[in-house]
Amino acid sequence: MTIYFAQRCYREYSGPMLGYLWHGKLLTRHLGSPTMFQVCLPRRQSARLNLTFMPAVSILHIENDPDDVFLTQRAFKKAGCENPINAVENGEQGVAYLRGQERFADRADYPLPAVILLDWNMPLMSGSGFLRWIRAEESLKRVPVVVLTSSNNDADMREAYELGANGFVVKPRTQEAFQEMARAFAQFWLHWNRADAQATANPW
Asked: How far is 151 from 153, CA to CA, in rounded Å?
């Protein structure tokens, strides 16, 4: 059985009534492709409920500021994304996580991520150092890495892309913008994007 989480939003109703209603509970079904469904309320209720189902895969967040970790996790939750977000403090811990070393040895608790959110300016191993490492690892080099940073420096952005980043996002300044960014990120990377299954297979 495949587990999916639902995100909901209400819009003006159009179209026929479909066969499933969402009541705020986790839905479990064995679903094939595609994994996005629309659930419509009757016309008299003047609303439409759209469900976007996302497989229960995880995100690795490499970030040294605990406040930013909290804000990011809150934004994803408020955006309707219930996928696990595992946070580590710097690039060195990110390497240990991906290698399954030390406290990260149990893949049930620390699964390989579908996508990595990477801060740029960190102690011990910076975002640039982490990118150099992961893109040199044959078994991990195709894992998507999106830089999420407070730096708005064009030189940092260019370096990130040169080192193989899949995206460069400046941290939004308001809660509403952070939530909108989280929603767009989750829908693209956890739903629409077709990931390489071998990129997230355990290499160790």
From this structure: 5
